[in-house]
Amino acid sequence: MIRLPDAIAAWAEEHGFHPAEELPSGHCCRVWADSARVLRLPFQGEESRSGAVAAVHLSGCGGPAVHALHPPTGALLMERLRPGTSLAAARMPEDEAFAIWTEAARRLPREPIAGLLPLESFFAGSVEAAVLQADAPRAFLHGDLHHENILRSGSGWTAIDPKGLVGDPDYEPVAFLRNPLPWTGDPELIRRRLERLGELGWNPERVWRWAMIDAFSEPAEGDAWHDYRKHLLQAGPPG
Fold first, then answer.
1. pTM, 2 dp
2. Residue among 6, 95, 144, 161 flagged as catalytic
3. Annotation marks residue 34 as catalytic
């Protein structure tokens, strides 16, 4: 029998959720599932606050259905996507993966909503982030739209696990740009992705600048991050 953490056990019982399995954990949450639903429990960062707000919002516009929210922890009882294969696990050719990401990004809402985390606050203490955001509009941002957070659902693909940010629309492609990790790309792959983003309406220079802020905002996490940072620098700002 799988035992849920005490903080959510009674709440899950009230909603008739009895986990049959624990799915692989993400970087910020634990996940349990029964045949039709998943229970996602954040354990760090903004996932328990703005991420939960964003997930509820996405539930009404293309994201997984949210059946219940546990405000004290940010736990979510949600629709289980089937087959649930991630874009990373599907090992799509680059062009196909890029097209799927683009479609997922375009389905996201754009109007800011209450309860989201401002992008400059996400990078608290970064003068570069504050300056870059200062001359940009504010839009709803998934904030972590990469290969692991786009899952196969029926015959289509669905974005999951938003960070729930609000800010410069040119930040949205950053998570895709650096993935999948461990990084196996090169500067040319980054250049190609930036060029294609420009063709689709994003500003490649601003995307690259946000990518630099993102890449150097935290301590190095092994060779994969080191290689990505090196290749991002080598790719240089477009134009």
1. 0.94
2. 144
3. no
